[in-house]
Amino acid sequence: MTTAYPVVQADEGVMRQVLADAPDMMVVSVKFEAGREGALHSHPHVQATYVKAGRFAFRVDGETIEVGAGDSLVIPSGAEHGCRCLEGGELIDCFTPRRDDFL
Q1: Is 31 strand, coil or helix?
Q2: Which residues form the Cupin type-2 domain (predicted)?
Q3: Which of 13, 72, 74, 91 has the greatest count of CB atoms below 10 A from its CB?
Q4: Are the CB atoms for 14 and 100 separated by under 8 Å?
């Protein structure tokens, strides 16, 4: 399915929209205001993140990775991770399998 879902507030200053989904994969846009954070968490899904705009400091299993527009990273299944938005921007996240909790 390729129908876009409504934009939802994931947290203060963080907006999320599912762009496309199928049982085996999901594509999600997440827009952050500068200074906002994605809290540390983990999930069984493999996550690939592409930085469409802005600058972010990701924490993945205790390691800090700073990324900017055009950069990407893969977060393994079960890895504890989160991010801090250094410059307002947008992430494009792909999850496999689909994150049913986002629907």
Answers
A1: strand
A2: 30-86
A3: 91
A4: no
The answer to whether the predicted template modeling score (pTM) of the entire model surpasses 0.90 is: yes
What is the distance between the alpha carbons of residues 89 and 103, in angstroms, rounded to a whole number?
Answer: 23
Measured CA to CA, the distance from residue 96 to residue 41 in angstroms comes to: 16
So where are the chain's domains?
8-102
Mean predicted confidence (pLDDT) in 65-83:
98
Residue-wise pLDDT for 38-70, tens only, equals 999 999 999 999 999 999 999 999 999 999 999
In sequence order, what are the residues at sequence separation of 6 or more whose Cβ sits closer than 8 angstroms to the Cβ of residue 63?
Answer: none
The CATH H-level superfamily of 8-102 is: Jelly Rolls (2.60.120.10)
Q: CB neighbours of 92 closer than 8 A, spacing ≥ 6?
A: 19, 27, 28, 29, 30, 49, 50, 52
